Amino acid sequence: METGSVHKIGTSRRYEDAHAREIIEDLVNQRRRMMVLFCHAAGLDRCGMPAEADDPDEVLQAFCKALLAYLVYSETCFFDLPPERTPEAFGLLGLELQPQIKATSHIMEAFCEKYAGAEHTPLSEQLDEEMAHLGEALSARVGLEDQLARVLLLG
């Protein structure tokens, strides 16, 4: 009977690990889509060259939609987990990173509140400054999420 219970535990652990990998892969795919739209909204193509002219309002709206989807998915990945998988369960690293991730969430939410549904793109200088600030927050968040993802995947 002990062997059966050990097998169940092992199977459960493999399922959790596979599930964690799937969640992280989905997060990376969401992140990739959002970052492509971020570059496009900033006026760059994938190579850092000026992008072809599209309607800036439509591009910005698509980016805001992707940014919000990414934010929701990311929050779900790391903060709506079973108790043994929450950032608190990750130890000091999780407790240290959680407020930093939340701070980037506030920056992302503020950007989307301002620009999602806006009828016209504001002056490009203002938008450029806010995109730069958002880019810094996104960069920080990616690094923080990657640290939590490593802990989630490696246990």
From TrEMBL:
Gene3D superfamilies attached to this UniProt entry: Regulator of RNA polymerase sigma(70) subunit, domain 4
InterPro entries per the UniProt record, alphabetical: Rsd/AlgQ_sf, Sigma70_reg_Rsd_AlgQ
GO biological process, one term: regulation of DNA-templated transcription
Key words of the record: Transcription, Transcription regulation
Family of this protein: Belongs to the Rsd/AlgQ family.
Official protein name in the record: Rsd/AlgQ-like regulator of RpoD
